[in-house]
Design a protein that fits this description.
Chain lengths: 254, 574
């Protein structure tokens, strides 16, 4: 069980996350939604232990993660928003590095890497440097790296980024299967239809705060919406999007 | 002895990260992202190892020829040579540190990738430290080994040279020790700077360090007859204060190992290993102790919100130019990229390092150190200073423009397809803003500071400016691309490959031009004539360039190497 309790984080005095509370039980997928700059990525980075909260605690099975950070990070799988990879490594080398750092025995690691590359259709490019990979191919490598050690907690920050339709559907099925197996999954995304289809719970953030934290069904009911997109718009979007669109189109005629 | 499981795991992680760190360092040193790292490493090693190897080979013959000279003379000459090898090795170590400066400590990317894995920050820092030292060991071995072989082979030709195997070992121990000492000192400096002033301030120093080391590398050859013999004399005289110069304890160690008996030599010889061990003992805690702090700072760092002052001024100047929108856009892009890209700045710095070496030497040769050069008058050697600087700065910028910055982003230019004439105008303006105007202005201010008459200072600056414009047109004679947007071909022009072809233009542009400037400064009429000639030369070149640019489209992909150059061997084999 992951518990994020009243967590605050600020950068040089500027608050990015304020009093955020979030709970995720095994077998559930919690969606993290919100506009750009609302604090989603900072929250995700705190959950995986990259950042330490200024206030509040993040606990895994009741223990503060920063008390046993290394032990905690052995059970976390993370797909970052920015595809940060060592671009001079090949896909196989990168996965070997990550697997090696996670202490996976060599034979097991080789088997798993081969299988990931094969399923994702990357085996023919396994010796090409990652700098030559497209965004979608890099994302597949990151997904493989996040899952290679069979983590208990999986944190996905914009996992669909760059993926084609088939790969997006595969990812959706993968998330559902992992949830069925009792994994705890945090799914941060802008893609509302994907969140609606895979998440049971959603936390909507705005200006660093959680303005809604409930199940997808309850959110739709409480906002009298038929889709998550409508519910999200009514809760988190305060712009007249149609007017903004018209204004943007008019700029080029000035 | 078996390690505990957690220590064993940390050790395994350390080994993995050390291997990866070597590649990280190599990647940081690459001037172009599309270069092959292994080829780059190989050729860099060959490049830095060739001068001392050639010098040692030359000395092998020289020692044989001096077979009948007195022992004292030969001994002094050998000590001078040994000091040269030590200085060269230390400068190469500094150059390696400057080239890999940003990767000497784990950066944001490292912390982002490794930070979410169960790896302690100190393991990552330790791995990076070992990888950096290993890289320095390889570079210093490449510099030391060939020379050690030649000097050892030369040993039997004269008794003063020492015993063959001892010479070999002494050369390697002393030169590699000196290189490592210099490298570790810079690592300490780098970590302390990052600790006290943050990563950004620390990274900015790389440009300055590279400028100094390249100038030093170019000058060390000219010091063989001047500065180095003086250092050797101080060593032979047993001057203990000379041991404060970083190379001196290692020179003492070298001399002591080969069996020389100068006064206080043992003390100096002992100081060398002690200095090396102490520097290593200091660098380890300085790297490991703040590792967690470095990681936190890197992960919490916000991108810079403000452009630098120079960058802002240059961009404002570019935008204020009375040109077409396309010229202004390309100029702003070029100037901004140049000022913001560390890789490209390092290329220009390498050229400026050579300019610094040549200008320093020209002043020394003209009597600058002996006090025989009158600085308050426009002497030829002084007039040549801005011209040499301008020549290398312009060629450096031209070379940097040929190295792509981010090829994936060049679609903006591919789609908008500005005219080649506009692009070349923008490139000339960029050269003007980044090299010609600053150098001419600094030259005028420098001349006034040296008490030249305002008339001489203004005339020199005007002549420099016009000559610079003509130089810019010459430098861009075969340019067909927007700066930083064209793929780099294997046979791309660089100072390494075309240095011979640049010597005559350098002599004409800097030294012959300075001599003419010296003459014309005596008469207003002559100055006006010369200004007119240079102006005409510039206008003719500009018109020729504009004529040649008609009906030629922009290039985004470098043409493949000339079949004559490659002889199409790959095709012949297949």
């Amino acid at each position: 069980m992951l518990d994020v309790d009243e967590v605050w984080k600020s950068y040089r005095g500027v608050p990015a996350v304020r009093a955020l509370t979030l709970h995720a039980a095994p077998g559930t997928v919690v969606g993290l939604l919100g506009p750009n700059g609302c604090g989603k990525s900072t929250t995700v980075r705190m959950i995986v232990g990259l950042l330490k909260p200024n206030r509040g605690r993040i606990r895994w099975r009741g223990v503060d993660i920063h008390q046993q950070l290394l032990a905690y990070q052995t059970i976390v799988g993370y797909i970052p928003e920015e595809p940060r990879l060592y671009a001079y490594l090949s896909a196989g080398e990168y996965l070997e590095l990550v697997g090696g750092l996670r202490g996976i025995p060599r034979a097991t690691l080789t088997r798993r890497i081969n299988r990931y590359l094969e399923i994702f259709g990357l085996d023919t490019d396994r010796h090409a440097p990652l700098s030559a990979f497209s965004k979608g191919m890099r994302q597949k490598v990151l997904i493989s790296a996040a899952l290679i050690h069979d983590p208990e907690l999986i944190v996905l920050d914009e996992p669909n980024s760059g993926l084609d339709v088939a790969a997006t559907l595969v990812l959706r099925s993968l998330v559902a299967t992992l949830a069925e197996r009792g994994k705890v999954i945090i799914y941060s995304s802008h893609m509302l239809d994907a969140v609606e289809k895979v998440c049971q719970e959603v936390v909507i953030m705005r200006n660093g705060r959680a303005i809604a934290s409930t199940s997808v069904t309850r959110l739709r009911e409480s906002t009298d919406s038929t889709t998550l997109e409508q519910a999200f718009t009514s809760v988190a979007v305060d712009q007249d999007v149609a007017a903004v669109g018209r204004e943007l189109a008019a700029i080029a005629t000035i | 002895m078996r390690l505990s499981p957690s220590l064993q795991r940390e050790f395994d992680q350390f080994v993995l990260l050390s291997r990866d760190s070597v590649r990280s360092l190599l990647n940081a040193a690459l001037l172009s992202r599309d270069s092959d790292p292994s080829q780059f490493a190989l050729w860099s090693l060959v490049l830095i190892a060739t001068p001392p190897a050639m010098y040692a080979f030359h000395q092998l013959i020289d020692y044989s020829a001096r077979h009948f000279q007195k022992a004292a003379i030969i001994e002094h000459a050998i000590q001078v040579d040994r000091m040269f090898f030590l200085l060269y090795g230390m400068l190469v170590a500094a150059l390696v540190a400057a080239a890999t400066w940003e990767a000497l400590l784990p950066d944001v990317a490292d912390q982002e990738i490794v930070g979410s894995l169960p790896v302690r920050p100190r393991t990552l820092a330790a791995a990076r430290l070992v990888a950096t030292i290993w890289t320095a060991v390889i570079a210093s071995a490449a510099v030391s080994l060939p020379a050690a072989v030649f000097l050892a082979v030369a040993a039997p030709s004269h008794r003063s040279l020492g015993f063959l195997p001892v010479v070999f070992v002494a050369h390697i121990v002393a030169t590699m020790g000196a290189s490592l000492f210099m490298f570790v000192l810079l690592l300490i400096f780098r970590a302390l700077l990052a600790l006290c002033f943050g990563a950004h301030a620390s990274e900015r120093l790389a440009t300055l360090l590279q400028l100094v080391t390249i100038a030093g590398l170019a000058e060390v050859f000219f010091f063989i007859n001047g500065v180095i013999p003086a250092l050797v004399d101080r060593l032979a005289a047993g001057d203990r204060s000379a041991l404060l110069i970083p190379s001196m304890p290692f020179a003492a160690l070298y001399a002591w190992l080969v069996g020389l008996h100068y006064p206080s030599l043992g003390f100096g010889a002992l100081a060398a290993p002690l200095a090396l061990v102490a520097s290593i003992a200091i660098v380890i805690p300085i790297y490991l102790w703040p590792a967690r702090l470095f990681a936190r700072r890197a992960l919490e760092a916000q991108p810079h919100q403000h452009a630098g002052v120079i960058s802002t001024v240059a961009r404002v100047a570019a935008v204020a130019l009375p040109s077409s929108p396309a010229v202004r856009s390309v100029t702003t892009f070029t100037v901004t990229t140049m000022l913001r890209s560390r890789r490209h700045r390092l290329i220009v710095t390498a050229y400026l390092g050579l300019a610094l070496a040549i200008t320093t030497l020209s002043v020394i040769v003209a009597g600058g150190l002996r006090g025989t050069l009158a600085f308050n008058q426009p002497a030829i050697s002084l007039l040549a200073l801005p011209l040499v600087t301008m020549f290398f700065a312009t060629l450096g910028l031209r070379a940097a423009f040929a190295v792509p910055s981010d090829l994936d982003a060049n679609w903006v230019f591919r789609l908008s397809q500005p005219r080649l004439a506009s692009v070349l105008d923008a490139t000339v303006i960029s050269l003007l803003l980044l090299s010609i105007v600053p150098v001419s202005t600094l030259a005028a201010l420098g001349a006034l500071a040296l008490d030249w008459t305002p008339h001489d200072a203004a005339t020199m600056a005007t002549l420099d400016l016009l000559c610079g414009l003509a130089l810019a047109e010459w430098a861009l004679r075969d340019c067909r691309a927007v700066p930083f947007t064209c793929t780099r071909s294997g046979d791309a022009e660089s100072l390494k490959s075309r240095w011979l072809g640049h010597i005559v233009p350098l002599i004409l542009f800097a030294f012959v031009n300075a001599a003419i400037q010296r003459s014309v400064l005596r008469s207003n009429r002559a100055a006006a004539w010369y200004l007119g000639i240079v102006l005409t030369a510039w206008v003719v070149q500009r018109l020729r360039r504009q004529f040649a640019a008609r009906n030629v489209s922009l290039q985004f992909d470098a043409s493949p190497p000339d079949a004559m150059a490659t002889l199409d061997l790959s095709e012949a084999i297949s």
